[in-house]
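Hi W., the pyridoxal-5'-phosphate complex you wanted:
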Amino acid sequence: MSEQGIEQKYIKEAFDTNWVVPLGPNVNGFEKDLEAFVGQDKKVVALSAGTAAVHLALIGCGVGPGDEVCVQSFTFCASSHPIKYLGATPVFIDSEPDTWNMDPELLEQAILDRKAKTGKYPKAIVPVALYGMPYDCERIMAIGKKYGIPVIEDAAEGFGSRYKGQVLGTFGEYGVLSFNGNKMITTSGGGALICANEEQKNKIMWYATQAREAYPYYQHEAIGYNYRMSNICAGIGRGQMTIVNDHIAHHHHVQALYAELLKDIPGIHLHSAPNADYDSNYWLCTITIDPDVRIKGQENAYKETIKSAVGGAAGVIHQVDSPTTDCQPNENIEALRIYMLEQKIEARPLWKPMHKQPVYADCPAYVNGVSEALFKVGMCLPAGPMVTDEDVQYIVDQIKKAIIR
Ligand SMILES: Cc1ncc(COP(=O)(O)O)c(C=O)c1O
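Structure:
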């Protein structure tokens, strides 16, 4: 049976057996599949989104109003926004140049400085597997252990990535996964939280299902959430789990192809794992472009405000008055993005570091300039399961054509 056929079989079963709710056999089955995949005797709770998983992991670590949480600055906003949902403060940690992820040295400096300034240690540490690349698991876990601070691994982009052979999300107290439409596997929308044991799993599940007490009526002694995954979405997830290893292999293949085809273009550098300990799923392939590489149309970059936003198909986007901000990718990056779009290729800038986001202007940040510098020179290239060898060749050809020699 094809992948889609398997997904449809599970969805049909959900309708036939009247399990069209946020619980049921597909949810339980998907959790079992995920537990088998991640290993290490971990337990998994399937949720409505990766963002929900971050939120519940923070609750699981006891984060509340007035607390601080050390979080990687170079990331998507869903790593840090839930800290604010809880009335706590993110403490942003910059990246190391090799992995682009949380710099362990800065992390330790930040922990000591926060203790000196506030009298308290941060309540949790949130490293992020940016574009699938593992963080330095060994050093970050050792720092967490040294100061008694739990680590929440945000492996939303790193499903199936490994550090020294062990699946990301299984090193820390909790591990976050996302199955959003663009991720390594999808349930349309969805996520999961990897938990250390059954007791933790029960606690997270309780919060995910409105925190109910055992009475014949609704009795609440804590604030809960409606975060459980739908049985329909979980059906898609069960189908996707049959091809997850093929997807990861495909992303590795696409990364290798980019490496081969980009290697002779001066000024363009493909981001790759620093050594064999870091087994990235290469969810997205990313490049950096030297500032002196000139791109067609560069002189017109940022001259006009755009009407949409990155990732902009969904939802409402605020229109803006100015085409520029005080921290943006270089003009050659913006020009290449526009050039590629004209050739029907969607290339995106890297995540803008959270410590450069206006909404977080008053949060503490421990910075070394790495993430800001990468944001200015970086770009994500298409890498999904639908991207063929011919597509990669076409994308690289267009990059070559865009460069003014
Ligand atoms: C690093 C990171 N964390 C968390 C999330 C949140 O996942 P979701 O979109 O499923 O809420 C995402 C992706 O969207 C992400 O990229």
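Residues 245-402 form a domain with the Aspartate Aminotransferase, domain 1 fold (CATH 3.90.1150.10).

W.
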